[in-house]
Amino acid sequence: xxxxxxxxxxxxxxxxxxxxxxxxxxxxxxxxxxxxxxxxxxxxxxxxxxxxxxxxxxxxxxxxxxxxxxxxxxxxxxxxxxxxxxxxxxxxxxxxxxxxxxxxxxxxxxxxxxxxxxxxxxxxxxxxxxxxxxxxxxxxxxxxxxxxxxxxxxxxxxxxxxxxxxxxxxxxxxxxxxxxxxxxxxxxxxxxxxxxxxxxxxxx
Length: 204
Known about the structure:
Number of strands: 0
Mean pLDDT: 89
């Protein structure tokens, strides 16, 4: 792909992200995306055959731009399951504020649009996979809370790290991201591990 095509493609993705962060998915047309990117509607369709294709590409683009691959590698390279959990909290606290608006737009669109639903479910499954990996490691290392199976632990990690919890605490209740991160780590350590340190109180 030529540098010009790459530049146009990236511009369309950034334009789509900007528009989705501003308003409802239903109002974001290919024409609007093209205008925002400063290209013709025909050029937009040359790069993406449909709005659905663009949306699926946008999910991967946002992951890359926001450093998700690096953050996932840090989790995988953690020296222990407990440290992997803490690095997972780092990922959630770092990434969620930056992708919150587009995430909410996707979640709303997923209720009535198949492409948005596919993109949203892909994100949910990716987070579940990370949670399952952490829970399995905690179990293998003997660090899993006695009352839990690794399946239940993964479900708790997945549910408590959801965008809706972030929304309730940060957007609705006004918690700082730092406080949200501290509470999330404190809660998850107590909920799914048997290795809670005395200094694991959440930061204010």
